Amino acid sequence: MVNILELLPMLEGWSWVRISGSKTLNANDNPIELYKSPATELGWLVSARMSSTVADMSLNIQYDPEETGQTITFGLNPYELHSKGFYIEGYTPYVVNYDTENNEYAAAFNPSIPFSMKGILTVTASPGSNDGTIQYDVIYLQVTNENSFFESLRRALGVSDILAQLNQSLNYEYLSATYLSAIAKQEAVLKVEEIQPPVPVTQVTTPSRKKYEGFLP
Does the predicted TM-score (pTM) go above 0.70? Predict the structure, then answer.
């Protein structure tokens, strides 16, 4: 299966959005909004990483899809992921580092297949049980021109050529079938005309009465 990231050099109408930085959060702070897309847009979440000095700080990636209207949230929280045993990279966030001695914690989310959506993207940071610092880095592929993007994607995959050949083939087959059908109908008409002989025209001649006057009563 071809990954969309492998085709990016051949595609048009897209750009990178990188959301990165560092925040100091107090335990009693409310979640802080780090990024929110200005409008509904199409894109792919490529990766998200965070590290913190408190185990239960979290980086939250929230989608509000246009199609379903149901909010989807991925939480990168080292403490929660550690307690669930998520240490393997895959389709869910996982623990990268969990060092209780040095108070160094980290989590990441690298979807095997980039997670796509069309909606509002929001990134927030939630404080933990103690004051601490969180560092974050989110990479997002934003489609800036859908027409150019999908047209270049079709070219890269060869879909345009396949569709053109298919249309040409279908048109040729349709015209051929129509032509052959017309010929078959004409041949059928000719065969019927050959099988049915022309109806003979019979002339009935009435004998002259004068010719047989001597024999008639």
Answer: no
Domain residue limits, the chain: 4-157, 159-194
Q: Is there a contact between 83 and 11 (Cβ–Cβ < 8 Å)? A: no
Q: Region 150-167: what's the mean pLDDT? A: 73
The reported pLDDT for the residue numbered 4 is: 78
pLDDT for the residue numbered 204? 52
Domain 4-157: CATH architecture, name and number where available:
Sandwich (2.60)
Q: Within 112-206, where are the H helices?
A: 146-157, 159-195
**Residue 153 β-bridge partners:** none
Per-position DSSP letters for 192-206, written without gaps between them: HHHHSPPPPPPPP-P
Model confidence at 66: pLDDT above 60: yes
- Give 123's contacts (C-beta < 8 A, 6+ positions apart): 19, 33, 34, 35, 36, 59, 60, 61, 62, 136, 138
CA distance 16 to 36: 15
**Pure H helices in the chain:** 78-84, 146-157, 159-195
Residues ≥6 apart with Cβ < 8 Å to 144:
13, 14, 15
Amino acid at 170: L
**Helices first, then strands: H and E counts in the chain:** 3, 9
At 178 the pLDDT is 61
Facing residues of 123 across strands? 35, 61
Specify the DSSP class assigned to residue 188: H
Element (H, E) at 58: strand 58-65
Q: What is the mean pLDDT of the chain?
A: 80
